[in-house]
From TrEMBL:
This is Hydroxyethylthiazole kinase. One of its GO terms (molecular function) is hydroxyethylthiazole kinase activity. The gene is thiM. Substrate binds at residues 44, 193. Keywords: ATP-binding, Kinase, Magnesium, Metal-binding, Nucleotide-binding, Thiamine biosynthesis, Transferase. The keyword Ribonucleoprotein does not apply. Belongs to the Thz kinase family. Pathway: Cofactor biosynthesis; thiamine diphosphate biosynthesis; 4-methyl-5-(2-phosphoethyl)-thiazole from 5-(2-hydroxyethyl)-4-methylthiazole: step 1/1. Its cofactor is Mg(2+). It is an enzyme of class 2 (transferase). The keyword rRNA-binding does not apply. CDD domains: THZ_kinase. Its EC number is 2.7.1.50. It comes from Rhinopithecimicrobium faecis. InterPro entries: Hyethyz_kinase, Ribokinase-like. The lineage of its organism: Bacteria, Pseudomonadati, Bacteroidota, Sphingobacteriia, Sphingobacteriales.
């Protein structure tokens, strides 16, 4: 599998897919730079009058609800209608779902457009279960990644989507298939928007791939390995963010394969 993951990284670098990001105001710059670093071409847009045309041009969509408003939600629905009709892959980041009824209702409406991938922290993934209320702390996770596994399996089967759970250990679930990534560094929690970066990278990897599960694994693995590699050189969260972008750009095959800690099943 490791060879296949590296092949997906190389393919992304050479194919330059166009990724339409309807993301939150906090992370637009860092998200765009991360996508450029791995070889994708980002476009950041949300205006209702152009969003369907841009969706048609894009290879995939990233939908991130971090900073919601009613106009943005309506544009997201228009984009997803177009994506659904033209079979475009898309990834949903349900940031802070469960923190308010508005977020929860918005996510439930977006899920009807059949996301290819859903990525969130453990609390966000647990909050996708309609039969339970989950205590949340804004956009922060209050649960370990493994505590969301049962919900992730259920959500994956219900929506026929790959589910990625981010945390100290990352999990990627496709129905009954589970992969665990044991890379990363605790300091990554102190950099705002790294989860959003993971979602954007997933959007890039699934853009021109027929293997959504492996493409999601490749995206999550790449960011986790990169974070672990550069954390030892970072003086703090600010320099860590910059070093992550550099290493996304220049990571070598040997670095990736030597440091990846992956468990299948």
């Amino acid at each position: 599998m490791v060879d296949n993951l590296w092949s997906l990284i190389q393919t992304l670098r050479h194919t330059n897919p166009l990724i339409l990001n309807m993301t939150n105001q906090v992370v637009m710059n860092t998200t765009a730079n991360a996508l450029l670093a791995v070889g994708a071409s980002p476009i950041m847009a949300h205006e209702e009058s152009e969003i369907q045309a841009l969706t048609t041009q894009a290879d995939s969509l990233v939908i991130n609800i971090g900073t919601l408003d009613k106009l943005l939600v309506e544009s997201m629905r228009l984009a997803l209608q177009q994506a659904h009709s033209s079979h475009k892959p898309w990834v949903l980041d349900p940031v802070g779902v469960g923190a308010s009824s508005y977020r929860t209702e918005t996510v439930q409406s977006l899920l009807q457009f059949s996301p290819s991938v859903i990525r969130g922290n453990a609390t966000e993934i647990r909050s996708l279960s309609a039969d339970k209320a989950v205590l949340s702390k804004g956009v922060d996770s209050l649960h370990r990644s493994d505590e969301a596994l049962n919900t992730a399996k259920m959500v994956s089967l219900k929506y026929a989507a790959v589910v990625a759970i981010s945390g100290a250990t990352d999990y990627i679930i496709d129905g009954e298939r589970i992969v665990r990534i044991e890379n990363g560094d605790p300091m990554m929690r102190l950099v705002t928007g790294l989860g959003c970066t993971a979602t954007a990278l997933i959007g890039a990897f699934i853009a021109r791939s027929s293997t959504v599960f492996e493409s999601t694994i490749a995206a999550v693995a790449l960011l986790s390995v990169v974070g672990e590699l550069v954390a030892k050189r970072a003086e703090g969260p600010a320099s860590l963010q910059l070093l992550i972008h550099d290493k996304l750009y220049n990571i070598t095959e040997q670095e990736f394969k030597d440091h990846l800690k992956i468990v299948v099943g």
